[in-house]
Amino acid sequence: MKFSDNIADDEWEWYIGQLFSRIIKNVNKTNIKNVVEIAPGFRYKIAYALKEINFNGKLYVIDTNTEVLKYVNEKYKLLLPNVKIICINKEFKNAFNDIPEKIDLLLSNHCIDDMIISEYMQNYYNKNLNSENFRDMLTKAWIELGREPIKINEINNGVFLTFKNFFSNKKINTIIISQYKSNLYFKDKFKEMDEITEQCFNKIKELVIMDNTHINKILDFYPFGDDERYMGKYLLDNTQNAKNWIVGKYKK
Ligand SMILES: C[S@@+](CC[C@H](N)C(=O)[O-])C[C@H]1O[C@@H](n2cnc3c(N)ncnc32)[C@H](O)[C@@H]1O
After folding, report:
1. Across the chain, what does the average pLDDT equal?
2. CB proximity list for 17: less than 8 A, separation 6 or greater
3. What's the CA gap between 114 and 92, in Å, rounded?
4. How far apart are CA 183 and CA 190, in angstroms?
5. Which atom of ligand 1 is nearest to the CA of 45?
6. Residue of 114, 179, 184 to test ligand 1 pocket, by largest number of atoms within 8 Å of CB
7. 20 pocket-lining for ligand 1 (C-beta < 6 Å)
8. Where do the domains of the chain lie, and which CATH numbers do they carry?
9. Distance, CA of 206 to CA of 189 (rounded, Å)
């Protein structure tokens, strides 16, 4: 493999993948042929989820970064040898025509924050995504954006409308999008990213018919058994709470 993926914590990738697969198994009862994933980054949680459900159809992966798509092509093929992977190197809002009208699953892990900040940073985001100090650049950009309420509204509204248009233009059987809080949020110094993103995420969530009680029951499961690192309030209130997931169908 050409790309070094040692920055991804494999256990974490698998854990989030297990949450996705458990939701898929419990919510989507139809045969799954066409799946769309938005903005994987140099990660593979969704690949783990699809492996768990023995998926063998077509996977459309949308990401603006060409290096990410090269990575996806290599990494996902190892995990999903029987899946046809179609990479779409476009911004999500410009990729609608590259995706079939009927979609069985729309999946994305933690993409809303990236869609917001990439819109704010413009070319600077994509150009630097793979650079060593990208984390610092992101933090700086979020803090700057936090001081611009008009810009926040404009960008959040744009991202919201992209999802609304996508949901209304396509026939999607099940939408599953997660947006749990980052580690940074719990360290009290840096809240801009999660707070700005939460506003946008909650608006998108309103577009979907969702049974939070049912999803919380589904998320009440422990892929690592009684491993106490995965039993704390931090995770159960966060990654395993329906408030941080969008699961269901478009309301119309
Ligand atoms: C940090 S990754 C996302 C997190 C990842 N899904 C995970 O599971 O951890 C961010 C990715 O979003 C992509 N991205 C950002 N804005 C996008 C947009 N508007 N459309 C498509 N991809 C976008 C970037 O190129 C990058 O690969």
Report:
1. 94
2. 44, 45, 46, 47, 48, 49, 51, 52
3. 11
4. 10
5. 8
6. 114
7. no
8. 10-250 (3.40.50.150)
9. 29
pLDDT in tens, 162-188: 999 999 999 999 999 999 998 878 777
Please give the pLDDT value at position 187. 78
Report residue 11 CA to chain centroid gap: 17
User: How far is CA 155 from each of CA 99, 129, 178, 190, rounded to the nearest angstrom?
Assistant: 24, 20, 19, 20
> What single-letter DSSP state applies at residue 242?
G
Tens of pLDDT, residues 182-229: 887 877 778 999 999 999 999 999 999 999 999 999 999 999 888 888
DSSP for 137-183?
A: HHHHHHHHHHT-HHHHHHHHHHHHHHHHHHHHHSEEEEEEEE-PPPH
Candidates 22, 11, 21, 17; CA nearest to 220 is 22
Q: What angle do CA 226, 229, 234 make, to 5 degrees?
A: 110
Q: What is the pLDDT of residues 52-106, one digit of tens each?
A: 999 999 999 999 999 999 999 999 999 999 999 999 999 999 999 999 999 999 9
> For ligand 1, is residue 67 a contact (CB within 6 Å)?
no
Query: What's the confidence (pLDDT) of residue 2?
Result: 45
Q: What number does the ligand 1 atom closest to the CA of 108 have?
A: 6
